[in-house]
């Protein structure tokens, strides 16, 4: 398959008065044509900052190291003028908060048509026609009337649909959806996810879904990357991640999901402790302080991603969860070596 996005050894750093924050720590992956990739992890794991760096949208105190290529073209360090020709056109992003993602003092129609005028060179009439087509595609009732309204006049679910429509206006090859159902009620969440599934089928665009909701991933994604402490802990297909988890963190996330098929006699499992402080990450495995299987090697050596089976990888020293002893063949990086080379 042809890769739309290739990311290699990407790191994101933020300078703060209290020291440097290591938000993303050397991740590599591909997003291929027509596939949906889920990026899963708790809040603060680096999911959003990873793709904000790819889009060139980091805060002023942030910097990106490594490589991110769209169709072979390097995005990291690209001048803003050139980057603007790609983002919004070839790569589009749906942000978490639709109220802040839309400009409050501009009508919906103006916000949608200026994207087409800017990137496609359309006239006003053609742009309005295209905007109406997209509003109908995302199932917005009375689409023509919505063009004359302001964001605050619409419900949260409707604003989110408009954000999706705007992202799809230029028919992007890659759509990045950052928590697209956050702050929506359950019924609206289900409608948005149904819509995303339809769009995946109709548009054939590659999709990246950033979320902490494993249920969302199960329904939409082909591949999953489990992220913690700015690193990928496990990667694989949806079936492998859900039915054959190989990393203690992945297993903990799955055990934390409520299930309607189970009785309510036992308390819902929660992974003990808190995610690590990204200013003071543990020296070796970032999950060591919360892991039930931690041993001396986890504290001394950083586990590198390695294949469990072809296409399914984990960053863990354990032989397996069923046999949780250190695997002498597991590749790792001595923490002292990493510190000297940094």
Describe this structure in words.
This protein is α/β, with parallel strands linked by helices. Among the domains are: 103-166; 243-341, no CATH class. The protein is built from 13 helices and 14 strands. It has helices spanning 47-54, 80-83, 98-101, 108-120, 124-137, 143-146, 156-168, 186-203, 214-220, 238-243, 248-255, 296-300, 335-341; strands at 3-16, 19-32, 36-40, 62-70, 73-74, 91-94, 174-178, 206-211, 223-228, 231-237, 301-303, 306-309, 312-314, 332-334. The chain has an 8-stranded mixed beta sheet, with helices on both faces. The protein has a 4-stranded antiparallel beta sheet with strand order 2-1-4-5, covered by helices on one side. The longest helix has 18 residues, at 186-203.
Overview features:
14 strands; globular; 342 residues; disordered C terminus; alpha/beta; 4-stranded antiparallel β-sheet; 13 helices
């Amino acid at each position: 398959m042809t890769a739309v996005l290739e990311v290699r050894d990407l790191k994101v750093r933020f300078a703060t008065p209290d020291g440097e924050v290591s938000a993303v720590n050397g991740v590599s992956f591909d997003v291929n044509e027509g596939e949906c990739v889920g990026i899963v992890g708790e809040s603060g794991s680096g999911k959003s900052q990873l793709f904000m760096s790819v889009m060139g949208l980091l805060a002023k105190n942030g910097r990106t190291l490594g490589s991110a290529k769209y169709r072979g073209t390097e995005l990291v360090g690209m001048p803003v003028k050139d980057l603007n020709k790609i983002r919004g056109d070839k790569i589009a992003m749906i942000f978490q908060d639709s109220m802040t993602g839309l400009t409050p003092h501009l009508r919906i129609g103006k916000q949608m048509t200026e994207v087409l005028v800017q990137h496609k060179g359309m006239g006003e009439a053609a742009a309005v026609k295209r905007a109406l087509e997209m509003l109908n595609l995302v199932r917005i009732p009375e689409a023509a009337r919505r063009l004359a309204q302001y964001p605050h006049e619409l419900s949260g679910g409707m604003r989110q649909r408009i954000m999706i429509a705007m992202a799809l206006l230029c028919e992007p090859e890659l759509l990045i959806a950052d928590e697209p159902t956050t702050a929506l009620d359950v019924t609206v969440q289900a409608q948005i996810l149904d819509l995303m599934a339809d769009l995946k089928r109709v548009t054939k665009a590659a999709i990246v879904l950033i979320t902490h909701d494993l249920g969302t991933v199960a329904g939409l994604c082909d591949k999953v990357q489990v992220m913690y402490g700015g690193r990928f802990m496990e990667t694989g297909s949806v079936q492998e991640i859900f039915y054959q988890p190989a990393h203690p963190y992945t297993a903990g996330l799955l055990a934390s999901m409520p299930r309607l098929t189970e009785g309510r006699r036992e308390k819902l499992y929660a992974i003990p402790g808190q995610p690590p402080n990204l200013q003071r990450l543990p020296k070796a495995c970032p999950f060591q302080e919360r892991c039930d299987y931690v041993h001396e090697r986890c504290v001394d050596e950083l586990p590198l991603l390695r294949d469990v089976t072809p296409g399914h990888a984990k960053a863990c020293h354990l032989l397996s969860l069923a046999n949780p002893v250190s695997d002498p063949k597991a590749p790792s990086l001595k923490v002292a070596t990493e510190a000297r080379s940094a």
